Structure formats: C-alpha cells, structure tokens
Amino acid sequence: MNTKKILVAFFSRTGENYAVGRIEQGNTHIVAEMIASATGGTLFRIEPATPYPDDYRACTEVAQREKRSKARPALVGDIAAEEYDVIFLGYPNWWGDLPMCVYTFLEQHDWQGKVVIPFCTHEGSGLSDTENRLRTTCRGASVLNGLAVRGSVAQNERETARKQVLEWLKRLKY
After folding, report:
1. Distance of alpha carbon 151 from alpha carbon 169, whole angstroms
2. What is the mean pLDDT of the chain?
3. pLDDT value at position 54?
4. Per the structure, how many domains does the chain have?
5. Residues 46-73: b if buried by 16+ CB within 10 A, e if exposed
6. Is residue 103 a part of any domain in this protein?
7. What pTM does this model have?
8. Residue 138: which domain range?
9. Are strands 147-150 and 15-17 parallel, antiparallel or unpaired?
C-alpha cells in the first residue's frame, strides 16, 4: 500500500444509544476497527476522564452543556499524533459537531503537514459541517473527504458498513 504511518484515533460511547438501544461496543469504535484493520493503522481511543452517562438522555444533556460552553473535557491518556503521517479521526456527529472531548484531543497536537481523514457515525445528519470544523481546528493539515456511516448500520449491519469503509478507503487510495 504505502509506507506512511497511520493512526486511527476515535471517540465512541457505549451504553444506551439512539436508534440501537444498549450497546457494548460503540458505533464509531466498530468503524474505527474496520479502518485500522484495512490500513494497518494504530488504533487509539479518545477517552474523557469523566465518562459520559450510560443513560442516553443524561448523556445528551451533558454533551449539550459542554457544546454550549465550548468545554474541553480532560482526557485519559494521549498518543503522539505528531509521529504519524495520516490520522483517521472518528467521532459520533453530535448536533452537527464533534463531541467536545475530540476538540480536547485535537487542540493538544500540532497538525502541520498531517493528513486528517474524518469518519463519523450518525443517525441522519451525515458529516454535517464537521470537515470544515476540522480544517479550522487542525491548522496546517490537509483534511480529506470523510465518511459518514449510520450508527445503526455499523451496529446491526456490519458487512454493509465494512463495504462502505472499504469502498471509501479505495477511493482515497488507502
């Protein structure tokens, strides 16, 4: 394929989830594993120090509060993203935006000269404007066209999701 060092960084949540009920593995996590498997990339989970509530409604209340206040929740651990050439970045689309903990991760790193490739899970909003938000946040990076996979497809129709991922990676030449 190529000799570029690839990172697949993602935030995903378990517990009660919209459209798929209570889940043990997050929708974005499922897609991240597919990308890492296909590209040989290193998988890294972006994890807030204070986990989001398992209850869906309680989670949305916390997440909306964070979004309104532009919070940057503390994270558990980090990875030297600067050591990678290509960073696939995964997140659920929350109200047309990245979860605030993903901004915490992004703002800790220098993106100069990197290739950032977004992917998200959603239940109808696709990527929204997240690609442009990433272009603004990841100064100096080339942000390529992302992939949006319905969370219900990632969770319940994994072969369909895998085909979407592989076709997208092929178009990107990964």
Report:
1. 19
2. 96
3. 95
4. 1
5. bbbeeebbeebeebeebbeebbeeeebb
6. yes
7. 0.96
8. 6-172
9. unpaired
